[in-house]
Amino acid sequence: PVINALSVSPDGKWIAVSGYHEVLVFGLPDFRRAGRWMGESTRIESLAFSPDSKRLAVAGGVPARFGEVQVWDVATGQADAAWKIGSDSLYGISWSPKGDRLGVGGADKAVRVLAYPGGKELVRFDNHSDWTLQTAWLPNGNRLVSGSRDRAVKLIDAASGQFIDDINKLIEPVTCLALHPKEESVVYGGAEGGLRIYRAKENQDRTAGNNDVNRAREFERQPGPVLSVAFSPDGERVAAGLPNGEARVYDAADG
Predict the structure, then answer these.
(1) Using alpha carbons only, what angle is made at residue 57 by residues 247 and 121, rounded to the nearest 5 degrees?
(2) pLDDT tens across 140-160, in order?
(3) DSSP assignment, residue 220?
(4) Which residues pair with 36 in a beta bridge?
(5) Strand partners, 114
(6) Residue 24 in 3-state DSSP?
(7) Per-residue pLDDT tens over the stretch 52-61
(8) Residue 255: pLDDT above 70?
(9) DSSP state of 162
(10) Which of 19, 70, 116, 181 has its CA 20 to 30 A from that of 59?
């Protein structure tokens, strides 16, 4: 099956890879298979290890039928939780810094914040006008950002669900984003080959001319949609995954 998602645990011991109705987990660095975890979702769209690497969150679903969030105990391989949410697939799952909440986007355009454990919906944000494909938490856990096919990267109050601002100029559909490990900024990739770093703050200096004031870096245009992005652990480099099989690495400071 096509690999839609993969994730490496923060402690560097595990890599999780999506499959059909399942997630495969391998030990690192020897790639010894440690688990094969089954669920109801035909498509696994997003994977995220908890900050302490003890749990794996899985988002996906069956298109036009239901979305699903699963949480697995990495040490035991036992299902910790499984929640069906909404009527379409879920994307871009992410853990809050304390591991007590999950952010997730969806084909229904919503961003949800779920309590962990329990799965209670704490916040629902409905400000996007197209599929929400990514979420990421700022380091203090008070705010999160979301990226959507509507071209916006939105800054959200995680407690109230209040919309704070679009941090970017609306240029192209946002396909992927990643949080800087040390700063309140994100890198995002676009459907038209864009690759940019933005400060994750209010866009108050924006004028009627719609100036892109939060943009910190813009890299060369990629030869196709950017399907995945990541910062290196020290934040000094940016990697972009492309549909032609390439992974391009850039200096985050120089662009």
Answers:
(1) 125
(2) 999 999 999 999 999 999 999
(3) P
(4) 24
(5) 102, 121
(6) strand
(7) 999 999 999 9
(8) no
(9) -
(10) 181
> Is this model's pTM higher than 0.70 or not?
yes
Asked if residue 208 has pLDDT above 80, the reply is no
Paired strand residues for 56:
49, 72
With a cut of 90, say whether residue 84 has pLDDT above it: yes
CA 119 to CA 112: how far, in whole Å?
11
Give CA angle at 230 (227, 236), nearest 5°.
140
18 near 4, Cβ under 8 Å?
yes
With 0-12 / 13-18 / 19 or more C-beta atoms within 10 angstroms meaning exposed / middle / buried, residue 204 is exposed
Residue 79, pLDDT > 80, answer yes
Res 254: pLDDT: 73
- Average of per-residue pLDDT across 19-26: 96
**Which residues, other chains included, contact 161 with Cβ-Cβ below 8 Å and sequence gap of 6+?**
113, 123, 124, 125
191, 170 contact by CB (below 8 A) = no
Q: How far is CA 102 from CA 3, 77, 93, 184, 205, in A?
A: 22, 20, 7, 19, 31
The residue count for the chain: 255
**Please, what's the b/e burial string for 117-137 (b: 16 or more CB within 10 A of its CB; e: otherwise)?**
eebeebbebebbeebbbbbbb
Query: Amino acid identity, residue 26?
Result: F
